[in-house]
Structure formats: C-alpha cells, structure tokens
Amino acid sequence: MQQEVVLALLAKEPSHGYQLRARLRDALGPLGDAMNGGQIYVTLGRLEKTGQVVVERAAGMPDRPDRKMYALTAAGQRRVADWLAEVNWPKPDLAEFHLKLLAAAAAHLADPVAIVDAQRRELLRRLRDAQRAAMAEPRESEAALLLEGIVLRLQADLRWLEACERTWTKPKASTRGER
Amino acid sequence: MSRALLISRLVARDLSRRPAQAVLMVLAITAASTVLSLALALHGVTSQPYQHTRAATRGPDVVAQLGGPVGSVHIPGHPSRNIGVPPLSVVQAEVRSLIKAAGVTGHGGPYPVASAILRLGHVAAPVEAEGRGEAPAALDQPYLTGGSWVRPGGIVLERTFAEALGASVGDRVTLDGRPYTVAGIAVTAASAPYPNMCFPPGGECGFDAPTSSALSAVNIGLAWVTEPDARSLASAAAPLSYFLDLKLKDPATAQQFASHYVASHYDAAHPFPGAGGLTAWQSIAYNDGLLVQDEQQVLTPGAWLLGLLALGSVAVLAGGRMSEQATRVGLLKAVGATPGLVARVLLAENVVLALVAAAVGLLAGWLAAPMITSPGAGLVGAPGAPSITAADAGLVAAVALVVALAATLAPGIRAARVSTVTALAEQVRRPRRWGALIRISRRLPAPLLLGVRVIARRPRRAVLTAASVAVTVTGLIAVLAFHATADARYNPASTGLGDPVVDRDEQMLVVLTVALVGLAVLNAIVTAWATVLETRRSSALTRALGASPRQLTSGLLAAQLLPALPGAVLGIPLGLGLFALANGGGARTTTIPSAWWLIAAMLGTMLAVAVLTALPARIGARRPIAAVLTAA
Amino acid sequence: MSETMNQSMLRARGLRKEYGREASLVRAVDGVDVDVPAGETLAVMGPSGCGKSTLLHLLGGLDRPSAGEIWLDGQRIDQMSERGMAALRRDAVGFVFQAFHLMDELTAVENIELPALLAGRSPRAARRRATELLDQVGLADRARHLPAQLSGGQRQRVAIARALANSPRVVLADEPTGNLDSEATLDVLQLFESLHEAGQTLVIVTHDARIAATADRLISMRDGAFVDNTRLTGGTAGNLGALVGLDG
What we know:
The complex is a heterotrimer of chains A (179), B (632) and C (248). Chain A has 179 residues and is mainly alpha-helical. Chain A contains 8 helices and 3 strands. Chain A folds into 2 domains: 3-85, CATH 1.10.10.10; 94-168. Among the domains of chain B are: 54-286, no CATH class; 431-632, no CATH class. Chain B has helices at residues 2-17, 19-47, 49-57, 88-99, 159-165, 213-216, 227-233, 254-265, 281-334, 339-373, 390-417, 420-424, 435-442, 446-457, 459-489, 500-534, 536-544, 549-582, 595-621, 625-631; strands at 62-67, 72-73, 81-82, 104-120, 123-132, 143-147, 154-158, 172-175, 178-187, 221-226, 241-248, 277-280. In chain B, α1 (2-17) packs across α10, α14 (446-457) packs across α18 and α15 packs antiparallel against α16 (500-534). The interface between B and C is medium-sized, with 32 and 35 residues.
C-alpha cells in the first residue's frame, strides 16, 4: 500500500483505521477487494515509526488498532505536499517487455511473435474483465472513472502490441498481392 | 493564353469522362434545333415564293375565265337564274372590252379551255386542258420543270397535279379516250396549284363534263395542250371556256381593277359571261400559299411538342448534372480556382455542347428541308441551301445556346454559390421527405412501397415524367386525329388520285412522328437511367435489408408508370384539342379517331415506358451490393 | 464439451474471394474456415485491408464467394439465387454498417420498420415491433427524428435496432464503432452486451480492442487468412487489483 496514499487520506482530518479502509474501498470499488484487510495497518505502523503519523489515543478505549486515531505530523504533511507536486506517472513495463522480445529473438529461445500473441491474449482477457466491471458500476461513480482509465490504458498497450506483432512478423515471400 | 488552354483542357477532360451525358444532351438539343430549322425554312419559303414563279413565268396580273357552262348565278336579293352557255359572240365582245379597259397594257390569249377526263392507268381525274401555241407566249408562259412544251399529241401537266397522279414525262394518258403522251411538267402563276385551282374568290369552276358521281368529289387538275387539240376535245355536252390573261399598268391595283370592272359592267340582268370571273394575281398568290400554310399548321404544333419533349430531356439531364457539377465546382474551388475561372469552365463547356447541337441540328434541317419545301407549292426555286439563310442559322444557334445555358448553367451557378464544403459533401440535392406519401406507401405491397418512395424522394422528376408522357401521347393522338379526319374528308381509294395537301402533310407527320417517338424514347431512357443512378445507394441498401431484385425492378417501374398514367390519360383530350386547334380552330370538322386507337396509343406509350425503364432497372438491381455500399 | 452445445449457426469452409485477373489478382479472403455456434459472440480483428470486411459481406450474403461453402443455420447459402439471398438477408441476417446507412428521408421508427414491411408484415405489426426495438436501444423519445437530427451514436443504435427488426438468427456488424466517439462506443458496447446476454449470435468485425473484448472468441486476420483463434474467457479472473499494483 503506497505510504503517500495513506498520508493523503489523513490530510483532511485525523481518522480511525477503519474509516481509512472504508474510504479506500469506496474509491477503488472492486479493485479495493483485492486489498488485504490488514495492509493498511501495517502501513500506518511503518509511518508511525518514521514519524510521519502520530497516534492520538481516544480516551478510555482499549488498545486496539482499529480504534486508534491517526493524525499527520508536520513531516507527514510535508511529504504529502511533495507527493502532490510530483509528476511521475506510474512506471509502465514497456522496457522490460521490449528487452524480453529482443533476448528471445537473439538467443533463439522463442518466437517473438508467439510471445507477443500470448501477451495480447492476456491483455484482451484483462480488458474484457475490466470492461465488464466498468459496465457493472453505476455511471459517474468514482470507481467507474478509474475503471475507464484502466480500460483505455489496456487499449493503448494492445495497440503497441499490435505494432510489435507487425514489426516482428517476418515478411513472407510475396504470394499475397499488393495491398 | 494559358488560361484559355487550361479551361479547354478542363472542359475536354470533363466531357470525355462522362461522354454519355454530353451525347444525350446534344441529341436532345439537336432534335429541337432540327425542328426549328425546318420551321424556319418553311416559313422562309412561304414569304416570297410566288414571286419567283410570277417572275419566271412572266405571270399575268388578272385572269379572266370566260364562256363555258356558267350554271346558276346567285345574287343576293334576286332569284337565281340559270344562264347556260354564253354564245361565242358574247365572249368575243367581252374579250375586246377587257383588252381595251382602262389600265390594261397587254394581254395573252384568249386560250380555249376544254374540260375532259384524263386517265392514267386506272386513275381518272377531271382536267381543264388549256390550248396554247407551241411558241412561248410573252405573257404567262408556264415554266417547265421537266420535259418540253406542248406539241400535237403531247400534254403538259401542272406540277402538283402530276404529283397527285403519279405521272412523269413520257407516260401515256388518255383525254376523253384519246391517247396523249405527257410531254412535260410545268408550274404557272396564272392559277393556284392543284388542288386549289378552283377555290374561290371569283367564282366556282364550272365543270359539267360527263362524269361519274365518283369523280364529282375530286378536285380538278390543270394541263396544257396545243390549241387544235383543245378545240378537238370540245363537245356539245362539254363546251369550251376561255382564259384571258391581262397585264396592268399598275399590277398592285389588280384586285381593285377586277372588282371595279365587274361592278361597273355587270349586274343581275347582265351577268359576267364566264364561270370564273376576273381573278387578280394577289388572290392566286393567296391560294398558292394555302398549301404551305396548311403544312405550317401541322409543323408548328408539332415543333412545339418536340420542343417541350427536348426541354424535358434536357431538364432531367440538367438535374442529374447539377449534383455532379456541384461536386466538380466544389473540387475546383477547393484546389484554389477562383469563382471567375469556375464560371468560365462551366460556360465554356455548355457553349461547346450547345454549338455542336445547333450545328448538327442545322445540318439535319438543311438536309430534310427539300423534302418539304420544294415540290409542294408549285414553287420555283432551288431546293436546299437557299431555304436556310444565314439569319436562320444564327437564330437556331441562339435558341440552342439559350436552351443549353438555361438548363445547365442555372444549376451550375447555384452550385458555384453553394459553399465548397456542402458541394464536396454532395449535399446539394438532398432527397426530399414527403411524409404523406411515405405513410401511404407503408400500406402497399413491397414493390409499390419502393416505387412510391422513389417518387417521394424526387417529386419534380415524377411531374416531368408525367409531362413528357402527356406530350408524347398528345402528339400521337393528334396524328391519329389527322388521319381519321383526312380519311373522312377525302378517300383516295376510290379514284387512285393522291391529294398532295394530305400527302405532304402525311409526309411531314411521318417525320414529326418519328422525331416525336425518338425524343420520347430518349426521354424515357434518360429519366430511367438518371433515376437508377441516383437511387443506386438506397437500392443497394434496400437489397441489403432483404428486397429481392424483382421487387426493386418493379418498384422502379412503378415509380415511372404511376406518374405516366395520368400523363397518358391527359394526352388524349390534349391531343384532340391540339389537332382541332390546328385544323382551322374548329372551322373545319374534326373526326375523332375510334376509341380503340386512342386506348392503343395510350397503352402503347405506357408499355414503351415500362420496357425502356425495365432494362436499366434490371441492370441496376443486380449490381453487387457490397461494392455499391462501400463506395458510397 | 462443444459437441453437446448447439450446432453451428454459421459455418464456412474454404472461403475465398478474389478480385482482378492474372498479374493484378487480389485475394481478399484466402481459404478461410469459420464456425460460429449459436449464441456466441465472435470478434474478427486485423489491420486495414486484411479482408475482414469482405469476409463479413460474404457471410451475410452481400457478396458471392469465388470459392468455398457457407452454411447458415444448416442451410447452404453460397449457391443461392439472388431471390433466395434476398430472403436470407431479410429474415435470417441483420447487418450493421460502419457508416450506419440509414435512409436520410425516413424517421428513426420508419427506418427500423422497413425490413419488417419488406417481409410482408402488416404496417401495424411492423410499427409495433419498431417501437419495441427503439425502446430496447433507449431511443424511444427519438422515434420521429430524422437521421440528420441524431448524433452518430444514436444513428448507429437505430441501425442496430433495424438489424433486429425481423429477429435474425445472426447479427453481423462491420466496424460498428468505427465512426463513433468513446461515449457513443460505450452505448453500442452495452447494447451488444445485452444482445449477447439474450442469446443472439453476433459476429463483429472491428479494430477496436474494446469491442473485441466483449466477444467470447477472437479471430485475428491478416492478408486474407486467420492467424489466431482464441477464447477470451479467463484472464485475471477477478484479480483486478493486479492491474493497478494494488496487491503488493
């Protein structure tokens, strides 16, 4: 669980652990289901250790993690501000795949086109699932927007894979006519 | 210079890309030009032709018909009196009086005239044979158009009469049983040509030779023989009459001379001793012209009908050209041509088409004119070129140009004004929506549904179709009415003689009918083909939705036949009315052809429309669907 | 497992379509075999000019193959007469085009009822069916609109409704979202999904991966031949979080 995300969720006001979990689930929709329940508390624990989050104990409550009240420290607030100003887009793994194909071709380990086709099939299946999930969500919900983004990126990746396929397909001896 | 070259290249390329449309347009305008040329030629012929004859024959100013059986004389207010045959002395006295009358400067004759029956083969006709000297006369010498002048045993026939008989130089004929040879054929200015020889004014021809009743309905012909031959033909039952030619000091006053002389010398107690009286040359000229006027009465309405049909074809073609011209204009504008250049390209193209059409039409008219102009009115004058003057040519070219420009430039201008985008997107002629027809068509079976919707897309096209069919049927009905009337009025079968008026009219009608049918066929093909092209996309789509080719073909047929029906029905009264109008505006009786013929004309036209539409429709309905839809 | 399923709704063997002669011969479709069981959605993808549209035209009876056999619901169709093929297009096949191809002068409902009228149904029955379908595609309020008054997505939905007018056994769609923006694409997508759920056999030609992803099976085409043929079920099987790195 990205530490910056948790910090950002606390930026508005101090919250309980269970409140943070609920907010995350609302924002992520079905993707939130993949999230491990205890993930968030582990992250909160780490942030506490590095001094970006401080625990405000609620009076008279037993010492349970989900009853603890968490709040940002000054260091935490600074980190959030820095994070918001960053423009780093989540890393795509294009370079790794590209190198995969080159290595396979150079060492004759596998047919690059077969690798591309396998990847394409996988992405198409993912696209199908994401699309189904997107259509199941009510329109204009926050989760629907996220799913739309996933679908579009998968589409873009698929286009790149088609280009890979065209490039890596050995040109056949011209039995087929001009196009 | 380069601009002109550019324009000519654009025009040439464009015309060569779509030659079919250009050719059709040229054909339509050519037909109109031909008719116009013919009409002008004929008009030219009627204005001064008699003058030629008069000059060539040294025609007389006044002709007096004396002697012969005068028959009954009718004078208003007095009981009729049978005069009988004036004695020779009276006639001679009259001749002397006329020769000495004031204003008379010369005379010819008097020539004896015998009434006889001429037989050629099995054809018989009454004829007045004028006895002449073998030497040419100074006044009124008939002009030979074939053969030679009279000789003993030789007879010269008046040209139109010879035509009616079917006689030519060298034929053997009999006059009252006596053998003669046709020595020559001539024209004269002293008498109107057959069959108008005996038309009033003046009087009626007295013809009292022994004739069978069958011949009494037949017109009298004119011929010349030698004087002794003429006298030998006289008998107690058919006495001689006499023609006297007079030359006046002032030919223009011939009619006043004639009426004044008769009024001052004769009255009820002493009538003119002759059947025909005094005839001035102006009257003869008038009768001479009647023949051609008759022809014009046939030609003029025919020309109008043809003109309408030609315009119809041109309008349909123009509509079809409009959208493609719009696209072309859009393309030209999109690649940077100025509006001026675009206009000049369009203008150049249309001018070229029009001039070509006018030239072909003039040529066709020039070739066809002799058929109509030369023999008909006893005219002297070379056939062919002189009948179409430079002025006529200019007029025909101008009319062709105006028609072409009006029909094709107007859409071009509209296209030029429309925005480039619209033109390129082919939005210039969107199909209309006629909600009522669409709703009605829903209840009809599939072929009619499709047909009605085709009509609803372009209602004006349907109106044009109806109009063209109406014009065609009008023409056909008028021709049928002509035949019916001519048959009722004059039946040549009994005598074998032709009536040149009717013959000439019939010839012209054949030409007109052929032209009419030709144009109508052109029109039907153009309309059908244009419709098939325009509905190409929606037809392919309808087939993709499940319409069979037969349903589609039937639909297109219905789209043509549904408007054709009211047009054809309307054509019947219009045709009868047109003929009645041309036939003296009701002064002469019009015989209505039998109902079977009328229905046959109507159904025949509709059948022709159906057949001409079916072929392009079938071709269009079998094109591969995918090709049409993906190209659209 | 597939033996127990319904027999093929659409089948083709050795399908070939050629244009031109001799040196300029072009094989748009080069010896292709197709098998579409009833109720399946099949997507055909490929670069432009690979012959996928031609293939669809052949399957839908809009064009005749140069060689090969086609069976629709057990009936051999490649040798049929023109009239037979017309009946086929009317009753057994519904076609959806990339360019919509609606009649410009007819309203939405009139466009939709046209195939029913051509099939000989009474005007009232045809109108009823058309209204039903308009409802189904969510355009009940646009019944009286002309195509010019509709957006691209709405026009395509009308076209889809028209394709369904005579309850066809197969719906063939040729690049149905080729001329649409992404929102309109979504509308069409949902329509296809609902058709699929209702058991309609669909064959869709597309180069849009999103449309392809709605299919049960995907065929890739190149140069007139099939190069790939996969079932599209399975995949991340619910682990969507993996797509955004939320599981680590």
